[in-house]
Amino acid sequence: QKEVEQNSGPLSVPEGAIASLNCTYSDRVSQSFFWYRQYSGKSPELIMSIYSNGDKEDGRFTAQLNKASQYVSLLIRDSQPSDSATYLCAVKSRTGGGNKLTFGTGTQLKVEL
Amino acid sequence: DAGVTQSPTHLIKTRGQQVTLRCSPKSGHDTVSWYQQALGQGPQFIFQYYEEEERQRGNFPDRFSGHQFPNYSSELNVNALLLGDSALYLCASSLGLTLNTGELFFGEGSRLTVL
User: Fold this and answer.
1) A96, A109, B22, B91: which sits with the fewest CB atoms below 10 Å from its CB?
2) How much is the pLDDT for A31?
């Protein structure tokens, strides 16, 4: 079982729709969760972080965390063509110290006109 | 305010050669981590440096080594290159060893091609 799992996609949504990206993780002691956006050929850019159960909203983005189900998601409202990118879910475990992040393989999002 | 800078941006090597990649952290940051991202994959943690010491290491062979200098900049060295080492090498910087606020900043990466 992979430590962090994501559907590779591509996930295609029409412009203006809600895009829903999902991620599951295997380490129950994981404490911090992050969503990065990566455009083709570019480096990852942090867009959301979440540390406690529930929802966290930032503009058009909402991160949702359910530690009991070991599940984290990202909702993008009013999707725009500029949101087309690969979205990486990353998890930091409480074990091992430091700030190592374990990434999923990413979900490719395509927002169509 | 300079972000994370990496050099070189692209390089081509042949099997068996050695390569050194360089990273300067974001201003005010003292911790550097290195990640390898193969095509179509998520970044994989190689190791992390803080106070000039390797603090945490991922599942990479000893061919991968690093160094951190007193000015917090860092180098990643890969010896005896294999075709499978072809990837985007990402440097990320942060302040200290905790990551409570998610403040891990990535550089634009060094794309290594091994022929």
Assistant:
1) A96
2) 81
